[in-house]
Amino acid sequence: MCGIVAAAAQRDVAPLLIAGLKALEYRGYDSAGMAVLGPEAIQRVRAKGKVREMEARYQADPLLGGTGIAHTRWATHGVPSESNAHPHVSGGVALVHNGIIENHATLRQELQARGHVFTSETDTEVMVALIDERMRGGMGLREAVLATVRELEGAYAIAVISSDEPGHVVGARRGAPLLVGVGIGEHFLGSDAQALIQVTNRMIYLDEDDVVEITRDSVQVYGLDGEPVERAVHDSELSADAVERGEYRHYMQKEIFEQPRAVADTLEARIGQHGVLPNIFGVGGDVLLEKVKGLHIIACGTSYHAGLVAKYWIEEHARLPVSVEVASEYRYRDAVVPPDTLFVAISQSGETADTLAAMRESRRRGYLGTLAICNVPESSVVREADLKLMTRAGPEIGVASTKAFTTQLAALALLTLELAHKRGLGKERYLDLCAQLQHLPRAIETALQLEPQIVALAERFIPRQHALFLGRGAQYPVALEGALKLKEISYIHAEAYPAGELKHGPLALVDEDMPVVAVAPSGPLLDKLKSNLQEVRARGGELVVFADGEASMEDKAMRGSVTQIAGGGDFIAPAVFTVPLQLLAYHVAVLRGTDVDQPRNLAKSVTVE
């Protein structure tokens, strides 16, 4: 959600901070600001709205200095406003913060009793006031930060500067990501690698409760006890080119068309002519998976929909019971964990607050082990899991997830095949499923060729305010994902149902103003689905049906409603049929003139509860 960039350098850092904030715009925010340590005092500029609003103010009155911090804010405590925007300043201290401080009200009351006057509604201002108070009492900046974070309850990533210690930036993290960018004669802090890749590809990923102090010449990490600790430097594989739009109008469109390559990369060196290759889940993975008698899959949003598809796959092919749950619900209930159950966490960023907290909670619940399916190798979810499988989607800038979803499906398909093979799936069927999965990148490429037809379909949705999505079996989660995409970026209210539920309530909504989108690959449930769709047509509903080449959709009631797709086989059909739904949502949003890459009220990575 919120974004942090900080720098200690020999050059003016304000342009670097602004460039870093622009690289983090995909995360979602409602205000922006930065503070630079000048020759005598902290200089600050803030603005409600986009980074460009803050940048315009900076250009009118530049901030000069080699030490600074910057932030994009997503409102949690206090409305979006300039006064609530970060950085917050108290005395000679400025601070930016991602996360939520749960005991801020108590700390605020204590500070007010000691005479502190607050100028914002944020929980963040409590921290900067405490640090300033301690520095006025004689502590150095690092010692004051350490003493303050020991008092905090909740999640935070912070970066702090002080006019008393020019050239120094102190950062700290708990429950929210923060990393160090290692340069030559300059060092940086950032919420993720994309904020820093334009200045360095050498990164230090901080652990929970780390505190770091950077200058232009040094980096030192400390534990919460104040003792120095060692953290490894990693070379990021991210490139500045990877986060450019190139020839595409929006990042989302670019990422939709990157899916064949991303899925191929996810499968590369993991599946071969004779099946899934050994040890792709990490050291000890093959032994642990032999023992699995059930799975609990935990995720949020789009990743949750990927988990639902996996439930159909694993139960059908591996004959293992699977429970899929939204992470924010799982955390707060006492789930029953049968013996030898594998905990699977799915997260694009690896820093999703609820998913990470659920995985940590799983440690005390007696699971056989934990498996992370994730796109960020150095993320908290990956580092804390027993087994891991990276999705290799590359950076995804658009808030509405596309290639992250299909690569998650590819990874979950590999897990399904591995479990099915260990559970005695017949060789012929196993090899058929493997062949389908290897064909998936080409099947997605073929589906992308439907874009011109889908642009024409999208025009039907311009005046609509509601839409209904239907699917059966493993296509029901695909319908859920299609509805989510449409509502996220076009702001059309959309719901998804199993098609068999149509008569149990949703049919009451169907009229000539309600388009009904159906995912209809061939298979044993197709005739049932066709019957459901005829009920829609009989009530004047407008049908938009996606069917594969084998599906017989030539019924009179269906005529004129069907877009044919080469599904590629029953196993990979959910991933293939996702693609036209992504394109539909994208082109509807473009035609309606919404902000496709940064839809209102949404953030890319939800790092607070």
Word description of this protein:
This protein is of the alpha/beta class. The chain is 34% helix and 23% strand. The chain has 18 helices and 27 strands. The chain has an eight-stranded antiparallel β-sheet with strand order 3-2-4-1-10-9-11-15, covered by helices on one side. Strands 5-6-7-8-12-13-14 form a seven-stranded antiparallel β-sheet. Strand 2 (31-37) and strand 3 (42-48) form a beta hairpin. The longest helix is centred in the C-terminal third of the chain and has 22 residues, at 427-448. The protein is globular. The model has no long low-confidence stretch (mean pLDDT 89).
Which structural traits does this protein have?
single chain; 609 residues; 8-stranded antiparallel sheet
Radius of gyration: 25 Å
Task: Give the helix proportion (percent range).
Answer: 25-40%
Total helical segments: 18
Q: Could you describe the largest sheet, including whether it forms a barrel?
A: 8 strands, antiparallel
Average pLDDT, rounded to a whole number, is 89
Q: What is the end-to-end distance? A: 11 Å
Structural class: alpha/beta
> In which order are the strands of the major sheet placed?
3-2-4-1-10-9-11-15
Shape: globular
State the total count of DSSP E strands.
27
Runs in which pLDDT lies below 50 for 5 or more consecutive residues are none
Strand percentage lies at: 15-25%
